[in-house]
Amino acid sequence: MLAAKRMFSLAVADTDLFLEMPSSTQALYFHLGLRADDDGFVSSPKKIAKICGCGEDDLKILASKHFILPFESGVVVITHWLLNNNRIKSDRYKQTLYIAEKSMLEVENGVYMFTDSRMYPERNQNGDIPEPQSRIDKIREEKSRVNNNGGKTSRFIPPTVGEVQEYCSERGNAVDAQTFVDFYISKNWYIGKNKMKDWKAAVRTWEKKQRSKNKNSKDDGGLEAWLNA
To answer: Does residue 145 sit in helix, strand or coil?
Structure first.
């Protein structure tokens, strides 16, 4: 049985990033939190959205703003769950049923993030503070690793928003770099069931899709595919 009470951190709910969202999206965030298990996982986010009179667009906004992290299974987790101080006595705590999903996460400063998320710059709640350059430099140094045979194997390194923007500018396309990065962050840098290998190729794919669609059917980056699954 889930705990009857939940706590929500003002450090999250009082930010511009949160308050600028539609009121229905803010309400859905609290409803998801009330129904989350003791580890912050929610098994039926779409059903909850419907019951609460919210739309799937609200789920999409929460995912794009990183207030929730979606999994291919349809489960979501409240990103700032531990920051919300949702801690209960050990004799009352019940571990989540979603062990596989939890194994894909790590916690940094009370915030859930996908394990691979250390490989791209993290933004704060205002969305304007990049990860320290020293970490990015370290990531770049790890781009090639020596395998057991003494050879080198390439390792995919997610791009920064700046890198994507620079590449899009070189190609003269209309791909929004921030939307591109936010979307693939929410997908843990997977394309379908496969880990992304070449982000520039993914940019070119988005570019082709944009050119093939008319102005009344702009591509939203694929989040609707998750919402409609």
So the answer is: strand
